[in-house]
Description:
Helix content of chain B: over 70%
Helix content of chain A: over 70%
Oligomer: heterodimer
Shape of chain A: globular
Order of helices and strands of chain A: HHHHHHHHHHHHHHHHHHHHHH
Strand content of chain B: under 5%
Structural class of chain A: mainly alpha
Distance between the termini of chain A: 52 Å
Amino acid sequence: MSLEVMSLILLGGLVFLLAFGIEIASAMGIMAGLGLLLFVHQPLDYFARCAFEMMNSFTFTAIPLFVFMGAIYANTGTMGPLFRGAEKIFGNLPGSLASSVIVANAIFGAISGSSLAATATFGKICFPEMEKAGYNPRLSLGAIAISGTLSVLIPPSLIMIVYGGWEDVSVARLFAGGIIPGLILTILFMITVTILVIRNPSLAPTTSKTTLREKLKAILDLLPFLGIIALVLGTIFGGIMTPTEAASLGALLSIVFALIYRQMSIQALKDSMWTAVTITSMIAFVLFTARMLGQVFQYIGLTEAFSQFMIGLPVGKYALFAIICLMYLVLGCFFDALSMLVLTLPFVAPIIKNLGFDFIWFGVTYVVLAEIGLVTPPFGLNLFVLKGVLPQYEITTIFRGTLPFLIPTAILVVLLVIFPDLVLWLPRVLYAR
Amino acid sequence: MRRIGYIIERIADIGGYVSGWLVPLMMILVAVEVFMRYILLQPLMVADEFSAYMLVALSYLGLAYTWKQGGHVRINLLVSRLPARTASWIRLIGLIGTFIFLLGLSQAGYKMIIYALKINLRSPTWLIVPLFWPQLPVFIGFILLTLLLLVEIARAIAKIQAGENVEEMNK
C-alpha cells in the first residue's frame, strides 16, 4: 500500500474519530492499533510495554507532585492573601484589580503548573471582588482567563515537563527558559489592562490610593509565597535538586503552609489528591497512545516524508517557522496544549532540528503559542473552566474579554523569534558551569 | 445488571482512591530521599526507582476513575450540535470502538505481565526488582477501564432505548 493511502487512512480516521467526540487518547490509540495491525503487521503487545515504559520515568514523577502542590493552594483557599497582597501593591494603577489578578496568577504560576487550576481558583476568588468593586465583567473575565495561561509558561509547567521528557531536553533548562518570557508577558498583560482602562474609563472604577506602609505590609503578606517559589525554583536552578525533588519539597511545604494558615482539611487534601490523579491519568493515556501513533507514523515513513516536504518548500527558515506557528494557532482552537504537543512533535521536531532552532527555545515558544489555544474557542479550556465557575456568563463574553490580551501574546511570540536570547540567556547563565 | 454496574463503578473508585493516596506517599518517599541525601548524607538510592513505579501505578489504576469523572479530554464541538438521537448513536459507536481497543490493550497487558513472570524479568538497577509487580497496575488499570466501558455501553443502549441523550450520561 502506498504511503499516501496509509497516511490518508490514519490521519483521516483520526480526524473522523476526533470530530465525532471520541476521547483524544482513545482516538489516537484506536488509529495506532489499526496502523500497527494493518500496516506494520505487528500485534498490539508493544502497546502495554509502551504504557509502562512511558510513565516509568522519574522526570514525569514531577507531574502529579506539582499538580498536588498547586491543588493544595487552590483547595485550601490560601490564594486569597496572594490576590489581596497584589491588590495593595498595584492599587495605584488604572484597573488595579485586573492587574492584581495578573500578578497573583503569575505568582501562582510559579507554584502550580496547571492553567486550569489557576483559572478556576482566581475565577472563584477574584471575580466576585471585581464585580463588587464595579469592574466591567468583560475586563474581569478576560484578565482572569488570560492570566491563567501564565501558569503554563512560568515554571513549574506541566507542558514543559512533558516536552522535556518526550524530547529528552533538560526540564530545568526549559523552566529557566520560561522565566523571562513569563515576566515579559505578565508586564505586557498589565500594560494592556492600563491602556484599556485609560481608553475606556468605564471599564473600571477609579483606583484608591494605597500608602507606602500598606504596600510594605502587603509585601510581607506575599513573602511566604515568594519564599516557597524561591526554594522550589532556586533548588532546581541551583542544580541542588531535580524538578521532581523540588516538587516533592514544594508539595510538602504547601501542606505545612496551609496548616499554618489554618486552612488545611482532610477534604482539601483528598480533593487535591483526586485532582493529581485525574490530571496524571489523563496525561498518561494521551502520552502512551500518542507515542504509539507517532511510532506508526514513523514506521510507514510519514514523519520523514512530511519533514522532507516542509523543508523542501521554497520558503525561508522563518517563513517555515511562521507556517508551523500558524498550524499551532489553528490546532490550538481544537486541541488542548498537551495533546497538540505530543500529536505534532513527531512531525515538527525533525523540521525544527533541520532548521537549526534550539529545542529549549522551541519548547518555550510552543508553550506561548499553546497559551493562545487555551483562550480561543471552540476548545479554549480556560474559557470552559471559567464558564464552569461563573455559569452566568457566556463563553463568547469571556472570549471577547480575552481578545485584547491576545495582542501582547502575539507580540511575545514575535519578540521570541527576533530575540531568541529572551529564552536562551538565563539557561545559559545558570548552567554555564 | 444495575448492581454489576454499581460494583464496577465502585471498583473504579477504589482504583482512584488507591491512586490518590499514592500521591502523598510518593511525596514523602522523595522528600525522605532528599533529607537523607542532603542532611544525613546517606541517600536511600531507592526513591528514583520506586517513585517512578508509583507513578505508573497511580497513572493506570486511576484511568477508570478519571474516565468516570470525565477527565479524559474530548472534542464534542460537532457532536453537541447534532440532534440528540444521532449524537447518542455516535457516542455509543465511539464507546464500542474504545472498548474494542481497550480489550486489545488488556490482552497486551496480560501478555506483558505473564512474560515478566515467566522469565522472571527484573529491573536493570541495583535493586533488581521483579518487573511483574510494577507492571501489574498497568494490566489492572486497563481491565478496570474495559469493564467500566462495558457498563457505559450498557447504559448508553438503555438510554437510547428510552429516547434519552447519551451525552447527558456523565453530567
